Amino acid sequence: MSVEGVTVITVRSFVLSYISRMDRQEQNDRAEWLLGPSAKCQVVEEVDHPWRLVLLGAPGVGKGTQADLLTRRLRACHLSTGDVFRALSGRAGCDLSPAMKTALEYMRRGDLVPDSTVWDMVRERNGCLHCGGGFILDGFPRTVGQAESLRRLMVNENLELSAVINYVLPVNEIVARLSGRRTCAKCKSVYHVTELPPKVAGRCDRCDVELFQREDDRPESIKVRLEAYDRSTAPLIEFYEKLDLLMPVAASGTPEEICGRTMAALAIRRA
Ligand code: AMP
Q1: Domain containing residue 88
Q2: CA 57, CA 168: separation in Å to the nearest integer?
């Protein structure tokens, strides 16, 4: 059999085995990540070769949706720094540190939160990097400084990244995706008013909770976020390319198509 034939069979069996696992999987509730290290996750299952991934790409390419789909297929925990900030901003009346209050103001404007605040937040949750199911970092790192801090921490903790997936999409499609995006206030599932509508308009399919538009998905914030991406996050492409970790994946098409492309690329990486 040709080398190409072997690769195709390997990719297909890899994807099918993950799809069948997905059917019987319960999802990790990310409690330790979202609430802080004193909380304990409900489901953490060890897998033989955990994936430790970083998702890169401009805001709106669909990293959150892909992280959600990949989480179910790979059993890795979805670690989104944006979700932690949103969870904190939803805890009205709680004591927030002055640094965290400032961080939430940056977020509302669509600007990047200062590295030191983000790093404090990630570092105190570093137990999540040892998750038995692996992890999918979504929205972190976002600057070269954050990437260097992560690299040092992982070396100290004896952990290695498996790959960095860079989702690529033209700017006009990015803007259309961001402005139509809606999120479930409870489970954080992501929908789109036209591309991925819920079964009942405005309500989450999973929890029947009302969907909301993120403050930073409004037009004035979208512009700021895309500028911040070009300035601070795009340089990470070169950073991870040099470490031979970068895997570009086209982010056009349906979420399932993009996820299929990602799974195929991961299979080739591990073959
Ligand atoms: P996201 O959901 O990843 O788009 O993040 C939402 C917002 O949270 C961003 O626009 C930033 O204001 C803030 N944020 C999340 N992650 C980071 C990060 N790694 N560095 C700086 N700011 C972040």
Answers
A1: 3-168+240-270
A2: 6
